[in-house]
Amino acid sequence: MKSILDFARAKREERPVVILTAYDALMARLLAASEVDAILVGDSAAMVVHGFPSTIHATVEMMAVHTAAVRRGAPAAVVIADMPFLSVRRGREEAVRSAGTLMQAGATAVKIEGVAGHEDIISHLVESGIPVMGHLGLTPQSVHQLGGFRLQGRTTEAASRLMAEARSLEKLGAFALVLECVPAALAADVTRALAISTIGIGAGGDTDGQVLVSADLLGFDAEFRPRFVRRYQDGHAAALAAVNAFVRDVRAARFPAPEEVLA
């Protein structure tokens, strides 16, 4: 994938879009060498990298640092950066400034959670030349209002509201939409109703693509096991084994070996 225009092309060709997260240059280089279509610099960095309990602790400055690192690691990739908590709720001028900061840091596009109350911001950003990806369903920045990390859109009323919001995002000019933790049937209905791409996470297999946090599919956190994540390796166990092997080699005077000593 070379640009956001490829999202529409992928939908027309019924080719699933695959997105993974990165927060640093090292992971970005790995993903750039892979077959993934785009990289998301998620505000999940606040949790995965900085150890906060939720994404609301992410700031524009934090996101800009991570976005710049990812861009340096993946110079040619499509890089989507999350607009952090409240960055689109402080008025148009502040939203443009925040989005501009992320774009100048290296983002190809920004992702915005929700739509109600900031429709004008989304349309203004699009009109200003800043590509916008939407995000509906479980919107982690609203976790306290939602009562925790739980499935959204389960009632008829909630499903209708989500569908209306999805149509609104499309009309406002969003090029794609993340659907997080919604019933698979609802995600399928939204996908069929929209001309723009839907990217699912915990939303079943009938969306136009999937996104996951890289650390989750690599199994780096031994305690975090959401149902919608498939672990493709036990990264925690592998890394822990390597660290302990190094410790044992040092303590047994097996490291460094003669060939590893600089003369």
Could you explain how this protein is built, in words?
There is one protein chain. By secondary structure, this protein is of the alpha/beta class. It has 2 domains: 5-232, TIM Barrel, CATH 3.20.20.60; 234-263, no CATH class. It contains 11 helices and 8 strands. It has helices at residues 5-12, 25-32, 45-48, 60-73, 92-105, 119-127, 143-146, 156-172, 184-193, 214-217, 235-251; strands at 17-21, 38-41, 79-82, 109-113, 132-137, 176-180, 197-201, 209-212. Strand 3 (79-82), helix 5 and strand 4 form a beta-alpha-beta unit. The protein is globular. The model has no long low-confidence stretch (mean pLDDT 94).
Indicate the topology.
Layout: H1 5-12, E1 17-21, H2 25-32, E2 38-41, H3 45-48, H4 60-73, E3 79-82, H5 92-105, E4 109-113, H6 119-127, E5 132-137, H7 143-146, H8 156-172, E6 176-180, H9 184-193, E7 197-201, E8 209-212, H10 214-217, H11 235-251
Parallel strand pairs: 1-2, 1-8, 2-3, 3-4, 4-5, 5-6, 6-7, 7-8
